[in-house]
Amino acid sequence: MLRQFLFACLSAACMSAGAFAAGNKDAGFAIGVEYMVPGFAEVYAKTGVVWTKASGIGIAWHDIEPQPPVGGKHTYNWDVPDRLFLEYQRAGFRHFHVYVKSLNRWAASKPVKPIGGGSSLPKPEYLEDYKAFLRALVQRYDTHHPDHVPGLLYPVEYWEIEAEWGTGFWQGTREEYLQLLKIAYSTIKQANPRAKVILIGFFLAGLFEGHPDLNEIPQTLAAMSPQRRRISQQYLEDIRALLAHPDLFDVVEFHSLSDWSEISGMARFLRRTMQEYGYEKPIWVGDVNYTASPLMFWGIPIPPYTEAQKPAIEDTLKALAGTHHPRHAEAIAWLRAEQSKGLVKKTILAMAEGLAGINLGNLKDEALFSILPTITGTVAFQGLVDSSGNPPKPGRPRPAYYALALIVDKLSGFSNVRPLALGQGVYAYQFTVQRRPIYVLWYDDGRRYLPGDKEPTTEVLLRLPAGSYILTETPLMLGAPPTRRVSSSQNGLKLQLSSTPLWLEPVNR
To answer: Closest Cα to residue 88, out of 100, 98, 76?
Structure first.
């Protein structure tokens, strides 16, 4: 169930906080796609991406072992993970993140909800069975283990213990989760010492959008309603408490389902918290299922969208959902452009913040959620390619797909990134890729716009060596991104920036 109907959104009434890569695609910052869908591996492999993430569906404990062991003998059903991992590996994917859920009705210590499920700590008498499941899972997908699944090309070594904090996927307490994590960590490490354990992902919407400065946290909290403030403060406290146990995980992850501008603040908060405890571990941003803003959850606009924009947001969401709506084509074209721009911005910010990697989605639309668009926002329309049929099959790529290929092509293996100070609201970064500079720039005035709105622009002077450069626009329509040649004089290069990221690189000499 979608975020247990998007808890963080709003707690029912309140919002909580085919280009191919040059060089070594495994080096440095990792770019992945999620969630793995049967039949979609080949089309996404053509972007050059070699990382991917599997959802917990089909891989939870109850999916693989639906019946308790008999006489100490376990019976496992590996059909779903076998099919997924082998398909994606044969297509060219080499690295995998996997959710591991303890969800299992016959072993759960708490009732499993009929809709949405929800994991809990296994009953004491089933803890050894949980360990046995973990060992079997990890070893089946480890090429170094003699009993691995036939045909496995690469080991699966990143295991995330439970799906997401605070949104209903975990039904137990904080202490119970730490108990489960301790069991899972030691079991996975014994099964495969090379494996990495990922701490449960954090999803906190409504706090860091447009507020990358951690000194602004008290001010941002103070501006919230009392209920939102209470939920957000509790979430921050939970994050701190879970991060206080670095001996139980190898990787930290947060989920970005809100506006692209949340990336920096959340990344900095996690890193600062770890540093306060005297350590630092790799941070991933995952579950990036809405590369464009969801606009609204449960009738509440997502910042930086405002309450004053709510009627226009509702009209836009209805136009997106209604194929016969007179503004449907306009709304879809706008969303596809926003999706492409947002995918680039989230990825660039993750790179600039020194994160280990990002998992971008969705691989396909989720049409079910188009029934109530003012509750679920843009969730239903976030596939990077068209899809149809049952089972679904991939269709025509969308602009965000080409944007993903552009990122992989231009920035794979970058050795350095630094921000450039070009004025208020200007996001500008210089990357070094194989000793060559590549610049990515866009403008943001802190507001968000809807179909038909006129967006502001600004002019900047970029100090560059004199010469010719190739200017590439992030694709907003189908096909290869538009490019043109520009020249920098001794005084530099003047550029007109908008919300669409521009890419600039010197012409090969």
So the answer is: 98
